[in-house]
């Protein structure tokens, strides 16, 4: 069943847990239950996630998330990707960048926004 269009907030996974979600990507919150389960809209499907693994906010993301991985994480997902990359706040596209960027334009959706250097994932 599709989720409602109106998000009740936004959530992203931390470094530990809920590995089906992509680090740095913000997902719309569909519902927060009293049993510590948060239901997220992940590609138009409802996905229950333990609240302990999430960072939740009540406004949509405006800046690119910056994700720093160690080499073991990249081996686990079998991707040839830089250890530090950015995640678009609009479409969740992962994109490499150079270390001196303050702003970034998404290769996929062409949205431009600042990088969240003060909020690393």
Structural topology:
Blueprint (H helix, E strand, L loop, with lengths): L9 E4 L13 E6 L4 E6 L2 E6 L3 E4 L7 E4 L2 H7 L6 E4 L6 E2 L7 E3 L6 E3 L7
Antiparallel strand pairs: 1-2, 1-5, 2-3, 3-4, 6-7, 7-8, 9-10
What would a concise description of this structure say?
By secondary structure, this protein is mainly beta.
Top keywords for this entry?
35% strand; three-stranded antiparallel beta sheet; 2 domains; 10 strands
Question: What does the model show?
Answer:
The chain has 121 residues and is mainly beta. The protein contains 1 helix and 10 strands, in the order E-E-E-E-E-E-H-E-E-E-E. It has 2 domains: 10-57; 65-114, no CATH class. The protein has one helix spanning 71-77, and strands at 10-13, 27-32, 37-42, 45-50, 54-57, 65-68, 84-87, 94-95, 103-105, 112-114. The protein has a 5-stranded antiparallel β-sheet, with no helix packed on it. It has a 3-stranded antiparallel β-sheet with strand order 6-7-8, with no helix packed on it. The N and C termini lie far apart (30 Å).
């Amino acid at each position: 069943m599709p989720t409602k269009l109106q998000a009740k907030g936004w959530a992203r996974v931390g470094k530990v847990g809920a590995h089906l979600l992509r680090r740095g990507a913000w997902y719309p919150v569909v519902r927060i239950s009293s049993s510590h389960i948060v239901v997220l809209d992940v590609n138009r499907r409802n996905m229950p996630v333990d609240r302990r693994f999430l960072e939740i906010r009540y406004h949509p993301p405006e800046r690119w998330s910056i994700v720093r991985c160690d080499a073991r994480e990249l081996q686990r997902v079998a991707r040839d990707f830089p250890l530090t990359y950015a995640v678009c706040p609009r479409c969740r596209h992962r994109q490499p960048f150079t270390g001196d960027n303050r702003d970034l334009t998404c290769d996929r959706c062409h949205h431009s926004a600042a990088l969240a250097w003060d909020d690393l994932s």
